[in-house]
Fold this sequence. Notes:
Layout: H1 3-14, H2 24-40, H3 45-61, H4 70-85, E1 101-106, H5 113-126, E2 131-136, H6 143-154, E3 158-159, H7 178-191, E4 196-201, H8 209-222, E5 226-232, H9 238-250, E6 254-258, H10 267-276, E7 280-284, E8 292-294, H11 297-305
Parallel strand pairs: 1-4, 1-5, 2-3, 2-4, 5-6, 6-7
Antiparallel strand pairs: 7-8
Helix pairs in contact: 1-2, 2-3, 3-4, 4-11, 5-6, 7-8, 9-10
This protein binds guanosine-5'-diphosphate (GDP).
The site of guanosine-5'-diphosphate (GDP) has 17 residues, from α5.
Amino acid sequence: MFATLSDRLTATFKNLRGKGRLSEADVAATVREIRTALLEADVALPVVKQFTEAVRERALGAEVSGALNPAQQVVKIVNDELVAVLGGQTRRIQYAKNPPTVIMLAGLQGAGKTTLAGKLALSLRSEGHTPLLVAADLQRPNAVTQLQVVGERAGVPVFAPEKGNQGSDPDATGLGDPVKVSRDGVAEAAARQHDVVIIDTAGRLGIDTVLMQQAADIRTAVQPDEVLFVIDAMIGQDAVNTAHAFLEGVDFTGVVLTKLDGDARGGAALSVATVTGRPIMFASTGEKLEDFEVFHPDRMASRILD
Ligand code: GDP
């Protein structure tokens, strides 16, 4: 991911090497190249505008006599702006004062929510937490089984509705009401001393009003400490619209970028933090449970500019 963006930016910086000072024309040409690189990488237009404006202003005002030569100064400015676009500081999970901490996952079907639930559970377990996974995706018949498989691999128990015990409000899979399952899951966690609950919710391939309302109802019912919006970095320009819809629907507190191991341009996903004002907290980089990392904006920026 980001290989093209990385190559294009590096090529831009090369053109500046050996220059004693940057003329206004040099800065204008550089900013134009950065703009093209960002647009080609699918970075959202408002983010491109904000980014290039900041680079232009800072490059024009850069001190000539500093320790860095002009080319190095531009690299530093672009690095700083990339870190800012990616959310600035690393943002960790905010744990509840009174456990369990409730983390709800939301996103489109196929975004990688169920896989992410397992990754997060495994990572939390390795840090000494005692998570419980809750299967509230009752839309796809095999989603519960998939979470159980993931939970088993992560060594983390899964709270799931029993088949045939649906109460009075069966849904499409006959597994019951996802809001009730979520609420019961949190109660189960409290009763069994799990300090974190991770709720996997349903999504469709596109924005879906009914499922968005269901996610909003779960949010209202369990009052999560974190709502993580899980987004496939491969979906390109749709990323920004999808993020807006979920921000409105469930008011997420953080973003998880998945499939960063893919070869898509990725810029749209990079725009999500800026256009929603919510930090990217984790990244998923493969199908295995270990392919998971805390998202550090500064490290990602360095990786792109490497
Ligand atoms: P959900 O519908 O949002 O629960 O998505 P799933 O967790 O079922 O994931 C959908 C597909 O994407 C599965 O085949 C996963 O193995 C795959 N997947 C999830 N995360 C990643 C990732 O970071 N990289 C890659 N390459 N595949 C992933």
